C-alpha cells in the first residue's frame, strides 16, 4: 500500500472513532429546556406515554469501553494503514505458521511411504488409498475420476504408455511432467506429393494396425513412401513408436486424439502439443510416489488366486 493510501486509511479510521465518541458524548448530555424524563407529552390511547429517560450508565459505559477496545486493537494489530501493530502479527506470518503445522502433520502421515518402490506401494492397501485420494485431488481434472481419460488425455487404466509404463517412468512423468509435440506436417507433405498427401499418410497410418489392408489400398500404398520419408524418425519403420520421446505406437489401434478420419488428418496436418504438468513442486516426491503407485496399480491388477488355493 502506498503512503498516500496509508494516510487515507489512518485518517478515515481516526475520523470514524472520533465521530463515534463525539456522538456518544453529545447525545448523552442533558440540556436546559429538555423535558423531564417522565414528561414528553407523547401519549397514545390515554395511558401509553413515551418517556425521555436516558440510557442507563452501564450501557453508556459499554459504548466507551468498546471505543477504547477498538483503539487498543488497532494499536496491537496492524489496522492503521502501513503501521505495524505492536504485537508484530501479520496474516502472512499466521498463514506460514499454520502451513508449517499442517506440513508437519502431512510429513508424519507420509513418512512410512518415503522412498519405497512403486510396485511395493501398489501392493499396500493403505498406500493405495492415499494415492487414490491424491489422484482425485490433482489428476482427475484431466484424466477423470475413473482415470480413463478423454480426448487428448491418456487412459491410465490400459497397458498403453506413450512414455513408458515402468514404475520409474511413471514416477518420472508425475514428478517432472511431459511435453509431447507432434510437428505439423501438412505443408511439407503437400509440397512433396500434392494436396492429397495428408490423406495418403492418414490412410497408411490406419493400415499399421491392419497390415493386410495395405495390399488393396491405393491411398495407403502412396502414403507408405511419404511415411518412410517423414515419420519414421519418431515412430519407426514399423510404426511402433519410441517411448523415449513420447512418440506413440501406431500399431495398437489406440488414438489419443480420436480415431476419426478428420482427427487423424488434423494430427498429421496441423500437429499436436500435449502437456503433462510437473507435480514435483506441488506434491513433493513422496505424495507423487503414492499417486504414481495408484496409477501403476490401475493397469497391474493382482493375479486372482487359483480356486484350489
UniProtKB/TrEMBL annotation:
It comes from the Bacteria. The keyword Flavoprotein does not apply. GO terms for biological process: proton transmembrane transport. It is found in: Cell inner membrane. Heme c 1 binds at residues 139, 142-143, 276. PROSITE patterns: CYTC (PS51007). Heme c 2 binds at residues 182, 231, 234-235. Residues 126-209, 218-299 form the Cytochrome c domain. The keyword Ribonucleoprotein does not apply. Pathway: Energy metabolism; oxidative phosphorylation. Binds 2 heme C groups per subunit. Keywords: Cell inner membrane, Cell membrane, Electron transport, Heme, Hydrogen ion transport, Ion transport, Iron, Membrane, Metal-binding, Oxidoreductase, Repeat, Respiratory chain, Transmembrane, Transmembrane helix, Transport. Its cofactor is heme c. Its main location: membrane. GO terms for molecular function: electron transfer activity; heme binding; metal ion binding; oxidoreductase activity. Pfam families: Cytochrome_CBB3 (PF13442), FixP_N (PF14715). One of its GO terms (cellular component) is plasma membrane. PANTHER family: CBB3-TYPE CYTOCHROME C OXIDASE SUBUNIT FIXP. Component of the cbb3-type cytochrome c oxidase. This is Cbb3-type cytochrome c oxidase subunit. It comes from Pseudoxanthomonas helianthi.
